[in-house]
Amino acid sequence: MGTALARQALKAGYQVRIATAKPAAENALLVDIVTPGAVAVESSQAAASDLVVLAIPLHKYRTLNPHELAGRIVIDAMNYWAPIDGVFDDFESDPRTTSEVVEGFLLNARVVKSLNHIGYHELEEDDKAAGDVTRRALALAGDDAEAKALVATFIDRLGYDAVDAGPLAAGRSFEPATEIFTGSHTAHQLVALIQKASPLADAA
Fold first, then answer.
1. Containing domain of residue 31, as a range?
2. Tens-of-pLDDT digits for all 204 residues of the chain?
3. In terms of pTM, does the model score above 0.85?
4. What CATH number has the domain bearing residue 100?
5. Rounded CA separation 65/58 (Å)
6. Choosing a second label site near 114 at 20 to 30 A (CA), which of 23, 97, 141, 191?
7. Domains in the chain: how many in total?
8. Residues ≥6 apart with Cβ < 8 Å to 194
9. Cβ-count burial 143-178 (b if 16+ within 10 Å, e if not)
């Protein structure tokens, strides 16, 4: 997902920096080949970006540095996949959504849940120009209005309509196995599904 998103962001005119757990020097050649135009950097440099996207296996979220991401706008594009990644008590025993758990760990990061409910291959294939009635929509959820506005602009530039699902807790409505997660929807359809799921989100 990370590389597909990087390519799509480059296509949209963004400057893209990529960091992994490895030193930047070890990633440079691969980044140049897989995402030409992007730059391999250290995690601290990536964390200093205007917008940071977390696209790592969710069970590794504690490897992130909360201090580096404090005050940053962070898109949580991660999902909890117990059948693949194993059962993780952080999410099994906590009534909060996975994004709320991540936000709690990251202290003062401005977390917005989005980009988790579109396949990496679809991200580069389903984009359409603004105004197209068949344009696919992506939901976002967060507690910071300014952060959500910036993420909505980012989603629009990637080629998708952004639909505000509400506070971060509302991200439950598009986690794995939900109707939103498992399908492709226009903005009108997505709004209806979010409204349908709102009692569940409000109870979270």
1. 2-203
2. 999 999 999 999 999 999 999 999 999 999 999 999 999 999 999 999 999 999 999 999 999 999 999 999 999 999 998 887 789 999 998 999 999 999 999 989 999 999 999 999 999 999 999 999 999 999 999 999 999 999 999 999 999 999 999 999 999 999 999 999 999 999 999 999 999 987 544 444
3. yes
4. 3.40.50.720
5. 14
6. 23
7. 1
8. 139, 163, 165, 166, 170, 173, 180
9. bbeebbbbbbebbebbbbbbbbbbbbbbbbbbbeeb
Residue type, 160: Y
Q: Are 193 and 179 in contact (CB under 8 A)?
A: yes
Structure tokens at 191: 């709004």
